Amino acid sequence: MQNKLFKISVSDGLGFYGGSTSFASYTCIVFIALPSDWTENGKLALNSKEKILQKMYGEDWRNGNGDGSFYVVSKFLSEEVNAADTPWKKYENNKDFRCWFWEVKEGVIVEVKPEQFL
Question: Which of 22, 19, 12, 17 is nearest to 98 (CA)?
């Protein structure tokens, strides 16, 4: 089964039960190699989105944090990309972006080096 490479862009913040939200000043960029059963019609499957968010924020992220704060995802975009184009070279960890490189192995999301996508 051939993996498909997706680029995920997430804008997020930390919400507080008092009603305020502190949004991150950067965009999270995840490049992830997905097996075909994590996609539907060339797009990210809905349950796959939740698994990616769980990897980012913790398995029970929707229940909030012990201090009463909670994660707010204000944007989640996904697109299939071509690994041969090395799209990750356009991004680096700086004030605008935080980057991660993942692959799904036996149903589990693991960290990898981007060279493994080639």
Answer: 12
Q: Please report where in the chains the tokens 């680096």 appear, as a residue.
A: 92
Distance in angstroms (rounded) separating the CA atoms of residues 94 and 97: 5
Q: What distance, in Å, lies between the first and last C-alpha atoms of the chain?
A: 16
CA atoms of 19 and 81, how far apart (whole Å): 37
Whether 52 shows a pLDDT value over 80: the answer reads yes
Contact indicator for 55, 28 with CB cutoff of 8 Å? no
pLDDT in tens, 73-111: 999 999 999 999 999 999 989 999 999 999 999 999 999
Residue (of 84, 93, 95) closest to 24 by Cα position: 95
Domain range list for the chain = 4-117
What tokens appear for 50 in the block? 């939740």
Whole-model pTM: value is 0.93
